[in-house]
Fold:
Amino acid sequence: MLTAFTNATIFNGREVITGKSLLIDKEMVSAVIDPHKIPPEAKTVDCTGKNIAPGLIDLQIAGGGGYLFSDSPSAEALTAMTESIIKSGTTGFLIAMPTNSPEVYGKAIRIIKENPHPAVLGLHLEGPYISSARAGAHMKSYIKQPDIREVEALLKEAGGTVKMMTLAPEECSRDVIRLLADHGVTVAAGHSNATYEEAMTGFRNGVRTVTHLFNAMSPILHRNPGLPGAAFMSDQACASIIADGIHVHYDMIAISKKIMKERLFLVSDAVEETLNGPYPHVREKDRFTLPDGTLSGSSLSLLQAAGNCVNHAGITIDEALRMASTYPANLIGVTRKGFIEPGYKADLTVFTGDFKVAGVYINGADQLNTSYLNKS
Structure:
């Protein structure tokens, strides 16, 4: 079935297009064409005054829809979380699992395997091979030193469901990092007390990105540039950042963007309120905290993060959208996502000028009016 989206500003991941219509054919983007060339049999969606972007991709989100997934991984939690995240404008995401027990990791892996969904791209394990000195909201009792045989067993159990792992490069050998990378895991440095030199060594060993830049890591100082300084100086390493104005000051986001350019991308790092399990989160007005007041996660959607970059950090709208779609897709190597071009999946986020969700499409299916869940 052909569907034509008309009267919208199209951000295709490379340029801004006006005066054209977007044509999709079933699950795929077909063409961007002049409106008078729309085939007569096409269904038309009038997007007057709205914007269309490649579906947003969040590489670090831990909860939604009333569930913190790590608290009790289940099909019910996964379904509720997925539906909630999709409604916020995100069409693909990695579920972030904080440092936890092997049993919880194993259960999460099994649930993901048994309940596939096109928006669920896999798991992002934050830990357990992180620094106790930079644990942040993570439980220190679960932090451990990496054992190569244990990592091999985890990868075998995961069967490709673990797409990203955050670790402390000063705690992990080159062999561990390379083993993860060789199994298709994007290795990230985070919750780390690495010196500048240790961080740069980690990048040379295969660490490709940094998790929530500035948060839970060695600070950037004039006598020790730390992990953030290494991220700035690297030619290849990327970094995620939380653009809520709480985790990181908006001016620091602007500075980081000026230095890192296309290597900086957005994550929500959103959690959900829960008072159960090892990771209780208390909902405050604009954030989540532990019961003792420690900042533990954001209440952002990825679309809101992009809007904050435009409104508060001086980043152009097309670049902010790339930070929330194109760059994350490229980093973890998901195919045919992150651009609106012929041959790419028809994953689309439609939004208003004030960054409110107006439409979400995954594989060409309307997510706000017709649930895609449980469909093949």
